[in-house]
Amino acid sequence: MAEPEKLFQIKIVTPNGLIYSHRGSSVSMRAVDGDRQILYNHMPILTPLAIGEIRVKRGAEMDHKVDYIAVSGGIIAFADNVATIIADNAERARNIDLTRAEAAKQRAEAHIKEAKEKHDQQSLQRAELALQRAVTRIRVYDALHHK
User: Fold this and answer.
1) Is the pTM of this model over 0.70?
2) Where would a tag sit more exposed on the chain, N or C end, judged by fewer CB atoms within 10 A?
């Protein structure tokens, strides 16, 4: 007899409240020091996250469905088979407005060009972060809609 699949709780919280809460077989993300994946019974961990996508594999009960969530940094804490991600902003792929994300990308690219022309390092850094967030949202949207 096959062993039952080991699932754990995954929650994503922002200042606006709970964005995501499901059980999954794995959660993958980009930490500031590289890619990470957490599985059932992983050792406790607390690590900062980079701007990027969170991928949650939901398990056999959901035909191994993968949920995609864009986050703009934050932290992940994992202990006792509960993964909690706290982020300033998080957006599920199904909620991303692609037109708005593409417009944000174009604005950020224009701000980067302008900041470079003015040699404004602070504005350049802000625009580069805005570009990363917009590109991440587009990539997360594409992951859901173009499998």
Assistant:
1) yes
2) N
